[in-house]
Amino acid sequence: MMNILQTEWIKIKSTPFLYLIFMASCVMPFFILVPIFVDAYNMVDLNRNPWSLHFTGVFAIFSVFVVTPLIIMMASTCDYVEHQAKANKYRYCTPVSRSQFYFGKSLFLVLMTLLSFLMLPFFAILAGYIVNLFLPEYEYTFYSPELWSRIHFLKRIFLASLGIIGIQYFLTTYFKHVIIPLGIGIIGYIISFILSALNSPLSLWMPYDYPLIVNDLKMFKNDQNEAMIGDILSKVELLSILVFIIFLFLGWLIERNRNIRE
Amino acid sequence: MENLHIQVSDLVFAYKKGEPILKQLNMAIPKGAIYGFLGKNGAGKTTTIRNMLGLLQPNSGTISLLGKPVSRHSSVLFRKVGNLIENPSLYEHLSGIDNLRLACKYYLITERNIPIVLDKVGLSKAGKGKVRKYSTGMKQRLGLAMALIHEPELLILDEPIRGLDPKGIQEIRKLILEINDKGTTILLSSHILSEIEKLVSHVGILENGKLQFEGTFDNLLNHINASTKLRIRTSDATRLYNYLSKRMDVNLEAPWVTMSQLSDTGTASLIRELCSEGYEVYEIRKDKNALESIFLGMTNKNTN
Question: Do B73 and A3 touch (CB under 8 A)?
Fold first, then answer.
């Protein structure tokens, strides 16, 4: 499996795939600088840890506007590179089995998504220190970023995103095309926004909505409903993992029996 | 069985139900052969090769490579098989070397073969360049390098000379012969006879989903000789036809009279006889485009 991961890494060199990951996790945290600079004095609260507001902003943007589109685009393009190179007629006649190729690529997709999640807090901290250079009254250096609790929250968003990875990877395997999975993904993303805005119970049936659910609950979390929220979060994460496994398996059934005509 | 590196038995394959492309196809390719797999465009050569490599699932029949049955899950078998099917599978945003590195990872071999195969296919200098900047011929050479990287025992090449210039064709022919000299069995498909005529030891001609001819190249040449025609053009084709048809099988294709090929002495005595009978013999010739005509004859006989 290690050799498959290595081949995937070679293949994404100089593709949009790599730029997407870096755009998502390295550049995006710096977008938070814009409102801070524009509205600096209204946002200063000397009695509050500035990292709290900072991370809430970064994570809100990331989980609402970045995670789902990032996964949709990564999953849609990761298999397209094979389609474009007509690579299956060569790959499938090598000692590597179809299953190894299929699961290797899905693992790579999960790992790349995880990488973007792991890079995010570090670049968010960097963005905080840059703010502090220009606006020391925020006192970023005085307070601790409390990184561990942030990473714990990111872990929940990551688990909630697995379902989307499963669905999008299935779609790209099934259609062997970049536009259709991309289109379905975008429609799913829009519907998830609507369901979220309506606070609809149908959200639990919409895996594209899971990162939004996790983010909303985090934002409105307080002591009274923490137990209930914890329960829902677990449910969402569990459902997401289940959706991931089901769609991964369905995609594998298709791929292992596919006739390669391209 | 051990001496056959490819064996296809009663292979049936259809893309659409009820419209089979391959109909009870049988092939036997001995170890060490260079097998020329001939057929017109659309005859089913690539479909046959895709079935051989487990890319397509046959409706019925069996295929074995190197003595082992092929299926979609015969990945271990492919350690010893190299292939190039139609346009090579290349990641154009990567360099030639990177494409070969991927092949090394797939075949679980070290990368030390990369400069060797690049040199073999004449791409040593271009290896670091992006594939998207390669010409069609260069891409074809790189595809060949990817098929050779793991030193296969069996090499399956579908139209390998496509897109190459005459010099490139010469080089690839030489390379194929060198590879074969080391004991590699090679299946070489083409729809252009002259491409493979000088290379092959065995020939199979596919038409309408079946092999119309299979055998050594010598067998094919004998077959051709047996069917080579003698053509005679005289002052009066009809009179000559009437004269000869009493004692041999002749055809009138005015201004020609055609017959089966005669021995050299038989031809000489016929010319003497015709002159003594008062015929003015303008021209007498053997059809030398025989390989092509037998090929066309074989591939067209079911449709005529």
Answer: no
Chain A residue nearest residue B92, CA to CA: A85
Residue ranges of the domains in chain B?
A: 4-215, 229-286
**Token digits of residue A236:** 């969402």
**Which among B22, B74, B29, B69 is positioned nearest to B47, based on CA atoms?**
B22
In a structure prediction context, what are the per-residue pLDDT tens digits for chain A, which is 262 residues long? 788 888 888 888 777 777 778 887 777 777 777 776 766 656 656 667 778 777 877 888 888 888 888 899 888 888 888 888 888 889 998 999 899 999 999 999 999 899 888 888 888 888 888 878 877 777 778 777 777 777 888 888 899 899 999 999 999 988 877 889 999 999 999 998 888 888 777 878 888 888 888 877 654 444 444 555 555 567 888 889 999 999 999 999 998 888 888 7
B148 contact residues in A (CB cutoff 8 A): none
Q: Among all residues of chain A, which has the CA nearest to that of B85?
A: A89
Handedness of CA B56, B60, B64, B69 (dihedral sign): positive
Residues 6 or more apart in contact with residue A235 via CB below 8 angstroms = A204
Chain A interface, Cβ < 8 Å to B: 3-4, 6-7, 10-11, 13-15, 81, 84-98, 256-257, 259-261
| Integer Cα distance of A166 and A210 in angstroms | 13
Select the residue from A94, A103, A253 to test the B interface by mutation, using most B Cβ atoms within 10 A.
Answer: A94
A102: closest CA of chain B, how far (Å) = 13
Task: Give SS3 for A40.
Answer: helix
The tally of CA atoms less than 13 A away on the side-chain side of residue B221 is 8
Instruction: Say which CATH architecture domain B4-215 belongs to.
Output: 3-Layer(aba) Sandwich (3.40)
Please report, for chain A, the start and end positions of each structural domain, with discontinuous segments joined by +. Answer: 2-256
How many contacts does A have with B, using Cβ atoms within 8 A?
A: 89
Tell me which amino acid residue A195 is. Answer: L
Residue-wise burial string across A137-167, b where 16 or more C-beta atoms lie within 10 A, e elsewhere:
ebebeeeebeeeebeebbebbbbbbbbbbbb
Q: Starting at the edge strand that comes first in sequence, how are the strands of the sheet with B154-158 ordered?
A: B81-84, B154-158, B185-190, B34-39, B202-207, B210-216
- Residue A66 tokens read as 């970045």
Query: In the numeric block, which tokens belong to residue B263?
Result: 């021995």
